[in-house]
Amino acid sequence: MANLNTKYLGLELKSPVVIGASNMVTKPETMKKLEENGAGAIVYKSLFEEQIQLENLEQSETMEEFEDRNPEMLSVFPDVEHAGPKDHLNEFKKAKELINIPLIASINAIYIKSWIDYAKQFEQAGADALELNFYAVPRDFNISAFDIEQEQIDILKAVKKAVRIPVSVKISSFYTNILHVVKQMDNAGADGIVIFNRLFEPDISTEDQKHITPLNLSNDDEYRLSLRYSGILYKNINADIIGSQGVYEGEDIAKLILAGSDSVQAVSTFYVNKPEHLKKMLDDLSEWMKIKGYKSLDDFRGKLSRKNIKDYKIYKRAQYVDLLMHAEDVFKKYRMP
Ligand SMILES: Cc1cc2nc3c(=O)[nH]c(=O)nc-3n(C[C@H](O)[C@H](O)[C@H](O)COP(=O)(O)O)c2cc1C
Question: Scanning 165, 272, 314, 324, which has the fewest C-beta atoms within 10 Å of its C-beta?
Answer without folding.
Answer: 324
